[in-house]
Write a structure and sequence with these properties.
The complex is a heterodimer. By secondary structure, chain A is mainly α. Chain A is 79% helix and 0% strand. The chains are: A mainly alpha, B mainly alpha.
């Protein structure tokens, strides 16, 4: 039980939880965007802000967890993966995950800028509405891929 | 009220377009620095801002910083421009995202660098 909740594993769990929160905020933001009325613009602003904050925390905690993942020595997760049966899990999967995981915070920062800048104008201009929906969905899909790859690596070797 | 309505209708798209350019530059450079790191290990010390995180720290820090600089430059260039078509900047952003995603996919970079 004590091993289950080490500081590093707790941080990794919090990292996953924030990613989950991001996905929940996405569904809220999309509902607001698809059924947009004057009243829902305010909620759309807050849900996209929630998405942005949660994804920035997810990425930051991911970077901190990464320090333990790539620590030098044969006991680090990276060393164990590279010495194991599936070295490609680090060489291809984790390499992609660690870099592509840095894209959604930027996508969300841009999407939030657009939502807060246009405000009520979003429901007057369909083009803006589509661009915002596309940006939110791109960030969501990329996070989902990164999330899945993280789960795959964790299944073989947990931090 | 009427003034506010007129102001809303004529709202410039310079800031959103600059945000899309800045975001595209930030994302592209994270991928581009990864390609450079794969091509030559000499760049890794320059990219290692934090020893624990390794070269990823520099890729993210420098990439994001370049994106921020690109935002201010793009805004400066676009602020007086009228009839900005935001769709074009969005497509530019998506293309940058696709390229950057490919640049962090090792089989693709190996192919690009002739390692495969």
């Amino acid at each position: 039980m004590a091993d289950l909740f080490t500081p590093v594993s707790s941080l990794a769990m919090f990292h996953g939880f924030m990613g989950l929160l991001f996905i929940i905020f996405y569904s809220g933001a999309m509902v607001r965007l698809l059924e947009i009325t004057k009243g829902s613009v305010k909620m759309l602003k807050y849900t996209t802000l929630g998405m942005t904050i949660s994804i920035w925390i997810t990425s930051f905690t991911g970077l901190v967890t990464y320090i333990f993942y790539r620590a030098s020595g044969p006991e680090s997760v990276r060393s164990r993966i590279l010495a194991g049966d599936f070295p490609w899990l680090h060489e291809i999967v984790f390499e992609f995950k660690e870099h592509a995981g840095m894209y959604p915070p930027i996508i969300m920062a841009v999407a939030t800028c657009l939502v807060w800048y246009y405000g009520d104008g979003i429901f007057k201009d369909k083009k803006i509405k589509k661009i915002i929906a596309a940006l939110l969905t791109l960030a969501f899909l990329l996070t989902l891929v990164v999330f899945g790859l993280g789960a795959l690596v964790t299944k073989v070797e947990a931090v | 009220m009427k003034m506010k309505k007129i102001k809303e209708e004529t709202k410039s798209a310079a800031k959103p377009a600059a945000a899309l350019i800045g975001g595209a530059v930030a994302i592209f450079f994270v991928g581009f620095f990864q390609l450079l790191a794969e091509a030559s290990s000499n760049i890794k010390p320059f990219l290692t801002v934090h020893s624990g995180i390794g070269p990823l720290s520099g890729k993210v820090l420098y990439g994001y910083a370049l994106g921020l600089v690109a935002y201010f430059v793009a805004y400066h260039l676009l602020k007086n421009k009228k009839n900005i078509d935001i769709s074009r900047y969005f497509y530019f952003f998506v293309i940058a995202l696709v390229i950057a995603s490919l640049l962090v996919f090792v089989p693709f970079t190996n192919l690009l660098l002739g390692k495969a």
